[in-house]
Design brief:
mainly alpha; 6 helices; elongated; about 210 residues; about 75% helix
Length: about 210
Amino acid sequence: MEWKYKRLATPRAAGVAGVVFAILTATAIVLVRVALPGGADGDGVTVDAGERSAVRTALELVPFAGIAFLWFMGALREQAGEREDKFLSTVLLGSGLIFVATLFGAAAAAWTVLDEGGQGSSFGRDVAYALLTTYAMRMAAVFVITTSSIGRRLGALPRPLVVLGYLAGLTLLVVGASVPWSELVFPAWVLLLSLNILWGRRPGTARPAASA
């Protein structure tokens, strides 16, 4: 009975964790983008006390966003159970872990912006934006495309959400750092997927693999 309860609770765990990740990550991205509007090209921009406070708040949110994402990813994989495709599951796990690692790396590099003396802030800004927009978002793209593929194969996701996932993944993969604010595509997709899990068709209600 307890085992069945845990299985039934998994979709809700995935949905809640995904919503938490989406909100925290989007908030952190907005705070950093507003405080450092020049991005990696804003070398000559002076960061005042208010902007440093915004960046500090954003960076303090990142660890919690990473934890929520790991929980989200684990709950998604649990729902697939014995039906999971080992190849796609491995790509999903790998891309998700690398995404979190690069996200934490970008946050660590961004801490140099908080140096009131300004030493190293330009280098840290460049590294932070490169890790976030070039590397983390590419791994996010792989995660989105892989999740959409698994959802399509298992019949766990509605067709519009699968198509939207492929489009979001291609956007993150191709656009990268060339379009400011494009990194918000990933938390937006996670939010939509999480709301679908909470309110719509849940992975636990997917049709059997034999009929897929």
